[in-house]
Amino acid sequence: xxxxxxxxxAGNFADAFKHLLLVQLIQALRRKDKPFCLLDTHAxxxxxDLHSASAQKNREFAGGIGRLWNQEGLGPELTEYVAQVRAxxxxxxxxxxxxxxxxxxxxxxxxxxxxxxxxxxxxHAALAAEFVGDRQVAVHxxxxxxxxxxxxxxxxxxxxxxLDPAYELKDEFARLVEAVKIIHxxxxxxxxxxxxxxxxxxxxxxxxxxxxxxxIPAMLCAELGLYPYDGPPGLHGCGMIVINPPWRLxxxxxxxxxxxxxxxxxxxxxxxxxxxLVPAP
Length: 281
Ligand SMILES: C[S@@+](CC[C@H](N)C(=O)[O-])C[C@H]1O[C@@H](n2cnc3c(N)ncnc32)[C@H](O)[C@@H]1O
Description:
Layout: H1 13-30, E1 37-40, E2 47-49, H2 53-58, H3 65-68, H4 76-87, E3 96-98, H5 100-107, E4 113-117, H6 121-130, E5 137-140, H7 144-151, E6 159-163, H8 172-186, E7 191-198, H9 201-213, E8 219-225, E9 237-243, H10 249-264, E10 271-278
Parallel strand pairs: 1-4, 1-6, 4-5, 6-7
Antiparallel strand pairs: 2-3, 7-9, 8-9, 8-10
Helix pairs in contact: 1-4, 1-5, 8-9
């Protein structure tokens, strides 16, 4: 049984980074009328109670969504992300935090679809309950990497795969590389977004080099670092690799990452990176 539970981390700086980008990727898909399909391979519980004992244990959300919740003067993308979280908290107090499934669901149009897989029995049960009776959302208790093989390419031929594993397994980066190869073989035009932690710096850089060597065109890497990478063990930062990013995502991130760093910075250290691992054709 895997031990990772996202409830301890919901809404932290890494979630804010990931979900901010996710909302923008979905907004880009919504710009065309044609329906899209989003496959979230490691979906988590769907939504999280920030008053729960798990979330309160280290109050990680305070360094993420908590920093943005009442902040004035945010740019349009951060405003939009906070608005999505506010939609779950109509009373005005920050209590519920939407995971990637809930955030995505709020942005689906009537013809769009969401496929979710979650392996942890308790999180799967919560996810299934969240979307019971929802005909646009399918919830599977299966391995996210197997789900890829089962559902790609989607008949819509437009959409996004979000790969957001827990990185508990030593070979997770290697699994992700295999997953990217599978996705590319089956659905070369799909958008792929891979979130990764920066714990030790070296493995995440090796991962990027391995992905870059696949020479799949249009691979963009965005990173946010809040703690010195050679400092005490912990989550120093995180990144997202986007394959087939929407037009001008790089320009938007060029504006957005410095703003996010300004809002979430905790000390002197702060680092952002935006780089094409493989350029767009
Ligand atoms: C980082 S969390 C997901 C968070 C979620 N994507 C979000 O943004 O709200 C990773 C999840 O993957 C689940 N998981 C771990 N291994 C898995 C696998 N092979 N297939 C599907 N889910 C898995 C864990 O139980 C955990 O809930």
